[in-house]
Amino acid sequence: MLTLLRLFRILTVVFRYGLDDLVLSGVRTRGFPRLIKFMRFGRRYTSPRGVRLRLALESLGPIFVKFGQVLSTRRDLMPEDIADELALLQDRVPPFPSELAIALIQKELGQHPDTLFAKFDHTPVASASIAQVHFAVLHDGREVAVKVLRPGMLSVIDEDLRLLGIVARLIERASPDGKRLKPREVVAEFNTYLHDELDLLREAANCSQLRRNFAPGTPRGDMLRVPEVMWDYTTAAVFTMERMHGVPVGQIERLRAAGVDIPKLARDGVEIFFTQVFTDGFFHADMHPGNILVSEDPATLGRYVALDFGIVGSLSEFDKNYLAQNFLAFFQRDYRRVAQLHIESGWVPANTREEALEGAIRACCEPYFDKPLVEISLGQVLLRLFQTSRRFNVEIQPQLVLLQKTLLNVEGLGRQLDPNLDLWKTARPYLERWMHERVGLVGLKRRLKDEAPQWAQLLPELPRLVHNKLSQPDYGPALVVELARLRQAQEQGNRWTAALIGVLAMALAVALWALMGG
């Protein structure tokens, strides 16, 4: 019943904001203008289509807001007016009443925020789909940001996920691509990450881990700034962190006026992404412009500042090695190796013809090399890749959904900062260096060093283990004799069974003969 009510709510919002009209108006087929006029049922819209779409997503809740956030970074896939409106979803979602936030802080931390902090701003500075943020000052003078969870989020998310599960099952049954796309597994992954985002202790732990990976004072500290977690002021519903200052990455003119090297900033973003994915296997997976600042402080000018750590991704060693080899093969235009990797990993059926898959991948990718991003029609690339994957039954890997989403975010940021960014040229040296460190002599030395403590524990025990093994009596000859005896007993049993069956058959024949003679 709740699912049906939520579905009715969604249809009501679609009708109210005219989203059906927005979709149908893009169809250029004879007779459609009359159909659109009929479908409007006399409705009139004074607000632009982008505003209506944004308001509709805001009213439908966090899942739809997040969907809009992802779309806002893909200006190559939608009209400019819609992209501009969806960009407002990144940090301008309507806030909930401050009284609710204050009551939650008092419940979670045991004191009213005006007592707990030397200063607490009752007006939220930012409001997102899951939580909102208030600035405060600790009694020791440190500036902090207090993130407070939106009330009632769990029930809304569960309703929407239930609907997505129904849609996923319908797609799996009705669509010829349903099984290959694994929609139910994708929804399950989305379910996990959304529920993780509702636990602010988990987000604080993610923040702490990322800060260690880019620790201040280390070479990596010059790449990315991550706030410090204030654990004494953090619970599952309240997350207090160091307040970070900077310019939103989307305000390019302001960054340029502050003296930031914009092309370098775009290249640094790519390097930070690849460092997180391939070196750490732990990456910030919600990198839309609302979550990224750029420092304008002279001491750290042009350095990225990360915010919002509710969604992070992790990759296994197998995933990292496989992805790195695929990237390098693409950069080297070794399409045969790409095809081999897909077959070896099980992403395509084992009986796939290697040369056929190689030719299809070449046809998709070759036209787009050596071009700046501004000249690439990503929509056309995705369409051709989808057609190729459908032809070869490529299976979508649910564990890589977050990585795929983050790649879209990173590419969108790169396009926004520097349309002439050569993504391949920027990433290739890093991946070649990474593979050399993993596969070459450097990698061998590193692995031996990592295993040294374990070997140091095992090596002294080896002589004793070898002596114990050699001191044990040789049971081989006795085992051979016992096996021979068992085989002989089995053969004898088989003979007795055959004889018994013969006697029974003869007795049955005699009985039948006697009955017939009688």
Automatic annotation (TrEMBL):
GO terms for biological process: ubiquinone biosynthetic process. Keywords: ATP-binding, Cell inner membrane, Cell membrane, Kinase, Membrane, Nucleotide-binding, Transferase, Transmembrane, Transmembrane helix, Ubiquinone, Ubiquinone biosynthesis. Signal peptide: none annotated. The keyword Kinase applies. Pathway: Cofactor biosynthesis; ubiquinone biosynthesis [regulation]. InterPro entries: ABC1_dom, Kinase-like_dom_sf, UbiB, UbiB_bact, UbiB_kinase. The keyword Kinase applies. The chain crosses the membrane at residues 496-516. One of its GO terms (molecular function) is kinase activity. Residues 89-341 form the ABC1 atypical kinase-like domain. It comes from the Bacteria. Pfam families: ABC1. Belongs to the protein kinase superfamily. ADCK protein kinase family. NCBIfam families: PRK04750.1, UbiB. PANTHER family: CHAPERONE-ACTIVITY OF BC1 COMPLEX CABC1 -RELATED, PROTEIN ACTIVITY OF BC1 COMPLEX KINASE 7, CHLOROPLASTIC. This is Ubiquinone biosynthesis regulatory protein kinase UbiB. The gene is ubiB.
